[in-house]
Design goal:
By secondary structure, the chain is an alpha+beta fold. It has one domain: Glutaredoxin. The chain contains three helices and six strands, in the order E-E-E-H-H-E-E-E-H. It has helices spanning 17-21, 24-37, 76-88; strands at 2-3, 6-7, 9-14, 44-49, 59-63, 66-71. The strands form two sheets. It has a four-stranded mixed β-sheet. Strand 5 and strand 6 form a beta hairpin. The chain is globular.
């Protein structure tokens, strides 16, 4: 999405019961921190989702229209770099 000439990306982190129990809340917190550390508050919007319909595949994250499953505390930062930062280049 482009807003006033600036490319915007929306990141949804599933915080429904299954994903929440697998660390969805912590991953959302980590993404919030990464957005702030990268000074991307005006370009990346972080939202919670209550179900991305991938409950058996670990925590799910949707970046733009792409759903990424099996997101963990260990791989979420790499996914942020690969899937969010690269889209902003």
């Amino acid at each position: 999405m482009i807003y006033s000439g600036i490319k915007m990306i929306t990141v949804y982190v599933c915080v429904g019961s299954s994903c929440y129990l697998k660390g969805g809340g912590e991953i959302a917190d980590k993404y919030s921190l990464l957005i702030k550390e990268s000074s991307l508050e005006d370009r990346v919007q972080l939202k919670g989702a209550f179900c991305l319909k991938n409950c058996s595949s670990g925590v799910a994250v949707m970046i733009e229209e792409e759903i990424i499953t099996e997101v963990t505390r260990e791989n979420c930062e790499q996914i942020f770099r690969d899937k969010v930062l690269r889209r902003l280049e």
